[in-house]
Design a protein that fits this description.
Aminopeptidase; 7 strands; seven-stranded mixed beta sheet; 222 residues; alpha+beta
């Protein structure tokens, strides 16, 4: 299929926030809606708060006929994003005490995340080996189903690469789930990325106990 003719790539604006959060929630669960597995999906939007509030100038959206159908959230230096990781661990600790009061779906999700962290710290799972490349920026990209396979993601990437290079960034990495259910390594490879690290993750084990799901880090030098 060809490009979406009316589609444009532009800088993120504050008015796009709800659309970006909608896309994130609609693709969170291995490309499917997180609403399928949680009772309070809006909680997940906190995970992109850093980009939209601390570095909105590094974010871009794809707009088709006035509708935002995809986004690329960028961070030019991972050091600026470390607070988000600390925030995630703090949230996990807080959720441990809230679990008894959660609804059933939420309880399942957060308990699985707590177990993931425990297993990683104990060295039982490979998750503890995930260390992203140093001195690198990173990106987070998502598209609605209707915008996939039409070159939208590639256009978002190219626009961001031009922007990042103008800021002196030398390399960019992206993290992605590698699974039989949602294969996407071709997308990264065709856009000049190389596999930097791949490990078997337990992040979604509660939902796919028999499925091998990998956390893959891709890197590209600009």
């Amino acid at each position: 299929m060809g490009l979406m003719i009316a589609m444009i790539i532009r800088k993120y604006q504050q008015k796009d926030r709800k659309a970006v959060e909608f896309i994130q929630l609609s693709t969170y669960f291995l490309g499917k809606p997180i609403q399928d597995v949680v009772d309070t999906p809006d909680e997940m939007s906190k995970e992109i708060k850093y980009y939209l509030e601390q570095e909105p100038e590094s974010c871009f959206v794809a707009e088709d006929k006035g509708k935002v159908v995809g986004y690329l959230l960028g961070c030019l230096d991972d050091k600026n994003h470390e607070e988000n990781i600390s925030s995630f661990l703090g949230t996990i600790a807080l959720k441990f005490f809230q679990i008894p009061f959660m609804k059933k779906k939420d309880r399942r999700l957060w308990w699985s995340r707590i177990l993931m962290v425990i297993n990683a710290v104990a060295g039982i799972s490979e998750d503890s080996r995930f260390i992203p490349p140093k001195n690198s920026g990173h990106i987070h990209i998502n598209l609605l189903p209707e915008a996939r396979g039409k070159g939208v993601g590639t256009r978002l990437l190219k626009t961001f690469f031009i922007y990042a290079k103008s800021k002196g960034v030398k390399k960019i990495h992206a993290n992605s789930w590698g699974t039989r259910l949602n294969p996407n390594n071709h997308f990264w490879m065709k856009n000049g990325f190389k596999e930097y690290l791949k490990l078997k993750t337990t992040f979604w084990k509660a939902y796919y106990p028999d499925e091998k799901i990998f956390l893959v880090c891709y890197i590209k030098r600009l």
